Amino acid sequence: MDEVTEKEQQHIFESWLSQHKGLLFKIVRSYAFTAMDQDDLFQEIIIQVWRSVPSFRQESAVTTWLYRIALNTSIKWTTKERKHSRTENREHLQYLLLQESKTPADERLDWLYEQINQLDEIDRSLTLLLLDGFSYKEMAGILGITESNVGVKITRIKKVLITKIQKG
Questions:
Q1: In angstroms, rounded to a whole number, what is the distance separating the alpha carbons of residues 158 and 130?
Q2: Which of 9, 51, 55, 138 could bond to 134 as cystine, CB 3.0-4.6 Å?
Q3: Which CATH architecture has domain 6-167?
Q4: Domain ranges of the chain
Q5: CA distance linking residue 60 with residue 115, whole number of Å
Q6: What pTM value is reported for the model?
Q7: How far apart are CA 124 and CA 9, in angstroms?
Q8: 34: which residues sit within 8 A by CB, 6+ positions away?
Q9: From residue 106, how far is each of 26, 27, 62, 103, 139 by CA, in Å?
């Protein structure tokens, strides 16, 4: 994009947010475990999306751009939060999240998010991208790894999940 006016930036930002809010919430849910943390992370992502509008060059799809911003922001946020809350118990946080839920939960979806939450940042990001139908090439570009590495990691993730399903 060429020089973007604040009005244009606002219009683009609002358009992206209205069209892709679900994608952003999915990423937030995979990186933050309590409602309060999810709100904080969502705000961090929104700030980064706002700041990124002028630098969007349309060299990739908007969804790819937003995924990259949201994942990078989530990974940085997770690292920062880990430093601040080393003593908090992850199981306790998940318990609180379930207590705060106002809608009946789908146990399969909760199980899947629980498994995704246990993955490291790259594997977690890959899983989300895979669930959203991104190609290996797109995933590699977003995460800065090779396509073959994407394939190997996804195969390993699938094996781990299958093993957990069979044990469960």
A1: 11
A2: 138
A3: Orthogonal Bundle (1.10)
A4: 6-167
A5: 30
A6: 0.69
A7: 30
A8: 93, 96, 97, 100
A9: 15, 18, 30, 9, 28
